[in-house]
Amino acid sequence: MSRRPYILPPRPRNNIGFGVLNFLLASRWKQQGVLKNEEVEEPMNFPAKTVSACIVVMSALLAAQPASAQSANMSYFVTSNGPGKGADLGGIEGADKHCQALATAAGAGGKTWHAYLSTQAADGKPAVNARDRIGKGPWQNAKGVVVAKDVADLHSSSNNLSKQTSLSEKGDVINGRGDTPNRHDVLTGSQPDGTAFGPEADRTCKNWTSSTQGSAMLGHADRVGLRDDDASKSWNSSHPSRGQDGGCSQNDLKSTGGDGLLYCFAAN
Predict the structure, then answer these.
(1) Domains of the chain
(2) Which residues, 6+ apart, have CB-to-CB distance to 223 below 8 Å?
């Protein structure tokens, strides 16, 4: 038995866009093989200018659909915001939960997300290296751009990390040096090769549990600093935090160009 034609609804007097949308949807279904040519009847005649305007709007909406697929394939981002308690992240576990929550909200919660953070040896517990907890790569941002092929590439001069590629989970550029406010400082607690610091000096704000006294090593998401040297251009080990509250508060982090942001990587 033959299928009934897909008849586009008649154009309501004051709803031209509805008819055009149906036509666009039918055209897409026809391209995808859902409908055959003979199963689609053409819409009624619409004023040319109105049709053109509606097609532009509706096509943009339909074209935007693949963005969710890109987000699902995302495996690296800079957090759009921090937990809000300075460097007190609730430990490294709390930081991981923050990454997971933001990724889930962006449509990429099917992966296991870890914050790029090191911890220092303390209370009988060994140090943890950030480079050892983020998976093997490759990693790509919310726009589908690969930022590093593997752990070695990530910590080399050939990685693809920059202000334009270190995007938030929403696909937005993070404010950097020259922007207001500057938010380029990212918490890492790590040395340039992604390993932890020794126990001699605090570089993790007491292993991410302090919002007062301490200091945390920061990286520059935009790879730009006050000087033209390696430290200023380092994405993961530029300078330690400091400030009037002791070095680890939200205000301290903001005072040097940060906001308590994190790097998040899909570990699987």
Answers:
(1) 6-64 (no CATH), 73-268 (3.10.100.10)
(2) 161, 162, 163, 233, 234, 235
Specify the 3-state DSSP secondary structure of 266.
strand
Interval 149-207: pLDDT, tens: 999 999 999 999 999 999 999 999 999 999 999 999 999 999 999 999 999 999 999 99
Q: Which of 52, 55, 53 is nearest to 25 (CA)?
A: 55
Provide the 3-class DSSP secondary structure of residue 85.
coil
- Using only the alpha carbons of the chain, give its radius of gyration: 25
∠ CA 150-151-153, nearest 5°, is 65
Structure confidence at residue 228 as a pLDDT band (50, 70, 90): confident
Tokens 């993070």 sit at which residue? 174
- Measure the CA–CA gap between 49 and 205, rounded to whole angstroms: 61
Of residues 19 and 202, more confidently modeled: 202
Q: What pLDDT does 150 receive?
A: 98
Burial 218-252 (b: 16+ CB within 10 A, else e): bbbbbbbbeeeeeeebbbbbbbbbbbebbbbbbeb
Q: What is the pLDDT of residue 23?
A: 55
Residue 51: CA atoms inside 13 Å, Cβ hemisphere, count? 10
Rounded to a whole number of angstroms, the distance between the first and last alpha carbons of the chain is 49
Q: Alpha-carbon distance 79 to 230, whole Å? A: 24
Please give the Cα distance from 130 to 118 (Å, whole number): 4
Backbone angles phi, psi at 219, to 5 degrees: -115, 165
d(CA 123, CA 14): 72
Q: What is the pLDDT confidence band of residue 6, given thresholds at 50, 70 and 90?
A: very low
Phi first, then psi, for residue 115 (nearest 5°) are -75, 145
